Amino acid sequence: QVQLVESGGGLVQAGGSLRLSCAASGNTFRLRDMGWYRQAPGKQRESVASINSDATSYADSVKGRFTISRDNAPNTVDLQMNGLKPEDTAVYLCHVVDFKGRSSWGQGTQVTVSS
Q1: pLDDT one-digit tens code per residue, 11-58
Q2: CA distance 111 to 87
Q3: What is the pLDDT of residue 31?
Q4: Are 53 and 108 in contact (CB under 8 A)?
Q5: What average pLDDT does the chain have?
Q6: Which of 26, 21, 25 minimizes the C-alpha distance to 36?
Q7: Distance, CA of 75 to CA of 23 (rounded, Å)
Q8: 64 CB contacts (<8 Å, ≥6 apart)?
Q9: Which of 18, 2, 3, 16 minimizes the C-alpha distance to 92?
Q10: Contacts of 108 (CB under 8 A, 6+ apart)
Q11: Rounded average pLDDT over 54-75
Protein backbone atom coordinates (compact mmCIF):
# COMPACT_ATOMS: atom_id res chain seq x y z
CA GLN A 1 0.00 0.00 0.00
CA VAL A 2 1.33 3.41 -0.99
CA GLN A 3 0.12 6.70 0.45
CA LEU A 4 0.50 9.87 -1.57
CA VAL A 5 0.29 13.43 -0.28
CA GLU A 6 0.28 16.37 -2.69
CA SER A 7 1.12 19.97 -1.92
CA GLY A 8 1.75 23.21 -3.76
CA GLY A 9 -1.52 24.01 -5.45
CA GLY A 10 -3.14 27.42 -5.31
CA LEU A 11 -4.35 30.45 -7.21
CA VAL A 12 -2.09 32.16 -9.71
CA GLN A 13 -2.49 34.66 -12.53
CA ALA A 14 -2.04 33.61 -16.13
CA GLY A 15 1.64 33.47 -17.00
CA GLY A 16 2.63 32.64 -13.45
CA SER A 17 4.25 29.56 -11.98
CA LEU A 18 3.49 26.90 -9.40
CA ARG A 19 5.40 23.89 -8.18
CA LEU A 20 3.51 20.79 -7.11
CA SER A 21 5.09 18.16 -4.92
CA CYS A 22 3.98 14.63 -4.09
CA ALA A 23 5.47 12.57 -1.30
CA ALA A 24 5.01 8.80 -1.32
CA SER A 25 5.14 6.70 1.81
CA GLY A 26 4.43 3.11 2.73
CA ASN A 27 5.46 0.33 0.35
CA THR A 28 7.51 2.54 -1.96
CA PHE A 29 10.39 0.13 -2.55
CA ARG A 30 9.32 -0.89 -6.03
CA LEU A 31 7.74 2.16 -7.61
CA ARG A 32 8.07 2.08 -11.38
CA ASP A 33 6.22 5.11 -12.71
CA MET A 34 5.39 8.37 -10.97
CA GLY A 35 3.39 11.16 -12.47
CA TRP A 36 0.61 13.70 -12.45
CA TYR A 37 -2.90 13.69 -13.82
CA ARG A 38 -5.44 16.47 -13.79
CA GLN A 39 -9.20 16.72 -13.90
CA ALA A 40 -11.15 19.82 -14.70
CA PRO A 41 -14.89 20.16 -13.98
CA GLY A 42 -16.93 18.30 -16.57
CA LYS A 43 -13.85 16.84 -18.23
CA GLN A 44 -12.14 13.47 -18.20
CA ARG A 45 -9.05 12.88 -16.13
CA GLU A 46 -5.97 13.28 -18.28
CA SER A 47 -2.30 12.48 -17.90
CA VAL A 48 -0.12 15.57 -17.59
CA ALA A 49 3.37 14.14 -17.13
CA SER A 50 5.05 10.95 -16.02
CA ILE A 51 8.55 9.77 -15.23
CA ASN A 52 10.26 6.42 -14.78
CA SER A 53 13.88 5.32 -14.70
CA ASP A 54 14.30 5.78 -18.46
CA ALA A 55 12.23 8.70 -19.64
CA THR A 56 9.72 11.44 -19.08
CA SER A 57 6.56 12.08 -21.05
CA TYR A 58 4.26 15.06 -21.28
CA ALA A 59 0.85 15.88 -22.63
CA ASP A 60 1.13 18.00 -25.77
CA SER A 61 -0.72 20.81 -24.05
CA VAL A 62 2.00 21.26 -21.41
CA LYS A 63 5.20 20.50 -23.35
CA GLY A 64 7.73 23.27 -22.97
CA ARG A 65 5.92 24.73 -19.94
CA PHE A 66 5.87 21.94 -17.35
CA THR A 67 8.79 19.92 -16.03
CA ILE A 68 8.51 16.73 -14.01
CA SER A 69 11.25 15.55 -11.70
CA ARG A 70 11.67 12.65 -9.32
CA ASP A 71 13.77 11.85 -6.26
CA ASN A 72 13.91 8.22 -5.19
CA ALA A 73 15.24 8.97 -1.72
CA PRO A 74 12.85 10.15 -0.45
CA ASN A 75 10.16 9.12 -2.90
CA THR A 76 8.91 12.41 -4.25
CA VAL A 77 7.76 13.62 -7.63
CA ASP A 78 7.50 17.31 -8.43
CA LEU A 79 5.83 19.20 -11.23
CA GLN A 80 7.19 22.64 -12.07
CA MET A 81 4.52 24.54 -13.96
CA ASN A 82 5.50 27.71 -15.79
CA GLY A 83 3.55 29.88 -18.19
CA LEU A 84 0.28 28.79 -16.64
CA LYS A 85 -2.90 29.32 -18.63
CA PRO A 86 -6.54 29.46 -17.48
CA GLU A 87 -7.09 26.12 -19.23
CA ASP A 88 -4.60 24.54 -16.83
CA THR A 89 -7.14 25.05 -14.04
CA ALA A 90 -7.93 21.64 -12.56
CA VAL A 91 -7.43 19.32 -9.64
CA TYR A 92 -3.99 17.79 -10.02
CA LEU A 93 -3.53 14.25 -8.75
CA CYS A 94 -0.36 12.36 -8.07
CA HIS A 95 -0.23 8.82 -9.45
CA VAL A 96 2.27 6.00 -9.01
CA VAL A 97 2.56 2.48 -10.39
CA ASP A 98 4.69 -0.26 -8.88
CA PHE A 99 6.49 -3.04 -10.73
CA LYS A 100 3.48 -5.32 -10.28
CA GLY A 101 1.29 -2.81 -12.10
CA ARG A 102 -0.60 -1.69 -9.03
CA SER A 103 -1.48 2.00 -9.00
CA SER A 104 -2.13 4.47 -6.20
CA TRP A 105 -3.66 7.94 -6.29
CA GLY A 106 -3.33 11.01 -4.15
CA GLN A 107 -6.27 13.09 -2.98
CA GLY A 108 -5.48 15.92 -5.36
CA THR A 109 -4.54 19.57 -5.09
CA GLN A 110 -6.44 22.43 -6.71
CA VAL A 111 -4.70 24.66 -9.25
CA THR A 112 -6.61 27.74 -10.37
CA VAL A 113 -5.27 30.08 -13.02
CA SER A 114 -7.02 33.43 -13.40
CA SER A 115 -7.04 35.36 -16.66
Answers
A1: 999 999 999 999 999 877 778 999 999 999 999 999 999 999 889 999
A2: 10
A3: 87
A4: no
A5: 94
A6: 21
A7: 6
A8: none
A9: 18
A10: 6, 39, 91, 92, 93
A11: 93
